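Appendix B. Chain record.
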Amino acid sequence: MISVIQRVSEARVRVGGAVVGEIGRGLLVLLCAERGDTELQADKLLAKIVKLRIFADEAGKMNRSVQDVAGGLLVVSQFTLAADVSGGNRPSFTGAAAPDEGKRLYDYFVTQARQAHPQVETGQFAADMRVELVNDGPVTIPLRIDPLSIK
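Structure tokens predicted for this chain:
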């Protein structure tokens, strides 16, 4: 699974002009399931995200997690994270999970996130979304859970 995590002071997702998910301080999680991904990878990725120490402590050092600061999670599906441009200038998305499998893993990730964290908002899978955010820092971190790294 691939994700891009952005520390935000606020973020929201609009579909058809209506806000479908919104948080204040927290993490915007752009999430992509790749072909062959499993629930175990989703679990490992979620565990890493909620414990990732990228919020400042009293000394100004990145030493606190989203859980420590009681921040929100805004989880947005984004299959384009699997883009492959090695064959030219037009991206190929063949590495992304098929839509049904991608939705299943996205829904699983969101369900697990809601069990692990008190504030979880989402975008809408496969919708044309408008994501608005104020990147805090800016802090943007790509995370990938490779199936070979799971023991």
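Further analysis of this model is presented in Appendix C.
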